[in-house]
Write a structure and sequence with these properties.
The protein is mostly helical. The protein has helices at residues 3-10, 13-91, 98-101, 104-110, 114-130.
């Protein structure tokens, strides 16, 4: 008989049963805790996935908003250039009157009015500053 078997045979039978019960309870307790941890991990994974999707949606919204802002900035630059030119024309003597700048008949003959040319030049310059290629596709009619 080995030493372990001899030691086990010397323990009272009730002590072995009690030890087995405690071991069974400990195993069940650990299993329950593992199940709870797995559920918590699954919940955290779902939350992380939802947050990643929300971040992607927000990044898309930001990109669209930045593009719209760039177009508005180009438009504002074009309008500001027109206004500056009109103010300069109004203040200088011997320069064509404002009505000549926007004269439709003159515009149809030359292709574009002087103000339209000024607007487009400023619009395109702002687009270049913003790193936008082919700004003509953003100009309204």
């Amino acid at each position: 008989m080995s030493a372990d078997q001899a030691a086990a045979s010397q323990l009272p039978h009730d002590a072995l049963d009690g030890l087995g019960d405690r071991l069974d309870r400990a195993v069940l307790d650990v299993a329950a805790k593992m199940k709870a941890l797995q559920a918590a991990i699954a919940e955290q994974t779902q939350r992380a996935d939802a947050m990643q999707q929300q971040a992607a949606d927000l990044e898309l919204q930001l990109a669209v908003t930045e593009a719209r802002l760039a177009v508005e900035m180009m438009h504002a630059a074009g309008l500001a250039a027109q206004a500056s030119h009109m103010m300069a024309v109004a203040m200088e003597a011997g320069v064509p009157a404002l009505s000549e700048l926007v004269d439709e008949q003159e515009a149809s003959e030359a292709g574009k009015s002087r103000l339209a040319q000024i607007y487009e030049a400023a619009f395109d310059a702002k687009a270049a500053e913003l790193g936008i290629e082919d700004p003509a596709r953003f100009r309204e009619g």
